[in-house]
Amino acid sequence: MSEVNTTRGATPAARRGFFGRIALFIAQVMDELRKVVRPTRDELITYTTVVLVFVIAIMLFCAVVDFGVGKLVFWAFAGS
Known about the structure:
80 residues; mainly alpha; 3 helices; 74% helix
């Protein structure tokens, strides 16, 4: 097993000043953004449709459960 001497010399990022670290961060963000693969128009429409259908389904489920629990509570406590 090899040992790494961590006390000898600082990393290049640690030797940079405050603004140098900010510039390095921005450069790294720009490099990562260049790697992003953007969806095609058809993929975007498909993904949007799937999300909207899922959200509507969850909303309907929550509304039905809320209505059912509300009726149950009203029946239990109102006596009607």
